[in-house]
Amino acid sequence: MQYAIEYPCLQGNAAFEKQVRAIESFDCQKSLPSIKQHTLIVCWKEDLLLPPEESIKVLQAIPSTSVSVIEDAAHSIHVEITRAFTDCVSYFMNNR
Amino acid sequence: MPGAIVNEVDLHYECHGKGKPLKLIAGLASDSQGWQPIVEDLCLCYLVILVDNRDAGRTRPQDVEISIQSVADDCIALIEYLGLSSVTLLGHSMGGFVALDCAIRHPGHISRLILAGTSAFNSERNNALFHDWAAYPESGMDLEHWFGNIFYWILSGHFFENKKH
User: Fold this and answer.
1) Digit-coded pLDDT (tens) for B75-114
2) What is the extent of the structural domain holding A78?
3) Does the global pTM surpass 0.90?
4) Are B157 and A47 in contact (CB under 8 A)?
5) B contacts of A19 (beta carbons < 8 Å)
6) Does A74 sit within 8 Å of B33, measured CB to CB?
7) Which residue among A12, A32, A86 sits closest to B42, beta carbon to beta carbon?
8) In a domain, A73, yes or no
9) How many other CB atoms sit within 10 Å of the CB of residue B133?
10) Window B:9-38, CB contacts with A under 8 Å
11) CATH code (residue B63)
């Protein structure tokens, strides 16, 4: 908490609001079948914002996907169970 | 750490390690520093490229217009600026939207995609929630309560249980 509050490059409220509007305006569902790259979908079992079952259902419209679901962690991938995530990334980078 | 002038923005970026290029794209309110807990592992094997998206972190100015497409254009411009033919893109949350847009509009620059905690659109529930988060400071909420409120949404029950012990 203290690190977040004292972070010297904390995003201002106006910029935050602009990012929120950018997110709201985006929807690429129709283009997913055209994606050619092999894609790793990583989800976190306790993600309340983007629950795994919903994300996987949407993103599997990409023709070539692998899926990994990490237990015991939520949306903040930077803080919880980071080794499980980096292991997933390394396996994908080295094997596809 | 360097900056690259692309699309009229002074984009702060960092490169760590050597190997296959892996570019990380942060989500809402986050920037390059948010990746630090995983960079240490990944840069042992890969060239990890971090960037502060427009309107975030050390990238300047902070008052430019932003869309998922403009952040994606910056991402592609940085790949070209670094002289890389293609990279693996790893996008988290909003960064996943950016990674998807790069793969759709600039497929030649992207070798693989890693989509972490993301989707192809934001739910209406999340849009309403994020607008509330944006409005709280204007209603007088201090930073401690603002972050506290967000942490309930982005951290797991285990995180709070472990804090008890």
Assistant:
1) 999 999 999 999 999 999 999 999 999 999 999 999 999 9
2) 2-27+38-95
3) yes
4) no
5) 28-29, 55-56, 66, 94
6) no
7) A86
8) yes
9) 19
10) 20, 22, 28-31, 33-38
11) 3.40.50.1820
